[in-house]
Amino acid sequence: MPPKKAPAKDAGGDEKDYDLENFMLQKRLEVIQHRIQLKEEVIAECQRKLEEQRKRRGNTPAGRTPVLARLGAVLADLEAQSKQELERRREVVAEMTRQYNEMQNSFSDRIEDLKAQVKKAQEDIVEVENTKEATRKEKEDEIAKKDVTIRQLTHKMEAMAFEFADMLKEVLDKMSQRIEVTHSGWSRTDRMGGDDSAAPFMKQPLISSLQEFELVPHGDLPPEQAG
To answer: What residue ranges carry the coiled-coil annotation (predicted)?
Structure first.
């Protein structure tokens, strides 16, 4: 009876080892072929001996004829058994060859499938690398644009700071000039006899505040502000 076809996977779900099975099938095939060769040699040897006995039958005593007849029957039966065994062996070899070819085809299909998967993975890697490079360049361009914007805003802030400082200095200069004019008028009024028409303005807290910025000397304040 021919051996049953091995399942594609074992009980654990692992894939078969095709190389090992191919090796085992090849060895079994070699053993069967060797046995067939031995059987054929035995049959040939028996046939040769039978032929020799037949040639010598003419010189053989009559009493030995039944022995040769039995020997011929045994050889005929052995030959029939050998042919039957040979046919069975050929069927086994044919089945094993079919299984071997089927496994080879399955193995080749598996190889082609793996090659396709490898090719697809390589294409995916190239696509990811290209996308990564494009994203990196896009981010670098965005960062460069933001750096330019930051530098421009920094320059504008510095320019505005200098402009504001100039404006503040100009305002302070004008305020100082006005205070000097007002203070000069107050000094003249004081020397002219104590006219108090300008005194209320000079007594305001503005004089004390400007003194902190050293816009009005301490010695120029009226007595009530200096105290």
So the answer is: 36-156
